[in-house]
Structure formats: structure tokens, C-alpha cells
Amino acid sequence: MLTFIFWNTNGQRVGNILSELAIHHQADVLMLAECDFRDGEIVQDLNSSGVDFSYCPANVPSRLALFVRFPRKYVEPRFDSGHVTVRALHFPGCDEVLLAIVHLSSQLYLKEHEQTSEAIVVSSDIRRIEEEAGHMRTVVVGDFNLNPFSKGLTVANAFNAVQSRRIAKKRKRTVSGKNYPFFFNPMWNGIPNVSDHLPLKFQLEISYD
Description:
By secondary structure, the chain is α/β, with parallel strands linked by helices.
């Protein structure tokens, strides 16, 4: 089982905290947004306490950063833009999983309908990568700057995210004769009083040699 941590650092230097966080939670994958400091400095801070993380660079300049505590050869870049980076995780003997890390624009800069348009573009990019990969084993995590019930997350041609596993297991819904796959959103019911800039931890049942 792999432990993933996502954190919008809000541009703050949090190296020592990152190291403590990674050790405490035995993190395998660390994903950062609004990351404005040098990747080498982050790796140095992370590994100063005996943790062995590597930086997985993006193909374009980005404020999204990915660090892993396993051989970097298991991470393959698939797509990068200003708002999303998609990587394939392919471990020996395991089915490939796509990891999409997103950071959508804030309501400080876009109106709701503009945020929805942006979400449609990003989700279309992810769906295209899925088609190229030939599967939909995709985990999308990040700072959406949207409520779970916002149109950018719920409308069919955006993320088409639902709160129910039962509904998600139906795999898709049809709108105007076109099929749209579901995403399951475990955050729909929310976490009371959660801050925008606190780390988010989750785990996946993936093992590697």
C-alpha cells in the first residue's frame, strides 16, 4: 500500500515540516502545489532526516511538484500543462495507474462559469490521456478551488464526480447520446473546518518490488 500526501504550500518554505510530515506518515508520494522554491532544496530538506526521496520533473515549468520514495523509473510523465500534471505509475506485476495532480484557478481570479470552463479543459486532457493509456485507473488529486458540488466537478463533460461509490460503479452516464465516465469523489461529504492549506493524506493498495 502506498501513502500519498498532497499539500498546497501557498508558496511558503516548509522544508523541515515536509520532512517531519513524510516521516510521520511514512509517505511514498509527496505532491505539492504553489511550490515556488527550488526542487533541489526540497529534496535536500526531505532527505536530511534519512528519508530517500527523488524529484520527478515536469515537462514544462509548473508550480506542481512530485517527489517519490521509490525508484523514479516507476514514474512516467504523460502530460503537463499549467494546471495539471499526469504521471503513470507502473510497478512490476501491477496494473498501471494514472496519477493526475491538479491546481485550478481560484475564485479570486475567475468567475464560477470560467472555473467550470477551465475544469472542462483539464478533465478533457485527463480523459484523452486515459484513452491513450487504454484504461481508466486514474486518481485525480489536488487543489480544485471548487466545492465538491460545483459545476466544474459535477457536470458530465467536466469531472463528472459523484459522492456515491454505488453510482460510480455504474462507470458512466449518458447525456445527449454521449457517454461520460464517472469519477468518485470521497470529499463530497466534506471534512468540517478543513483549511485550504492543510496537507491531504490518502492511501492506495499498490505494492512494488
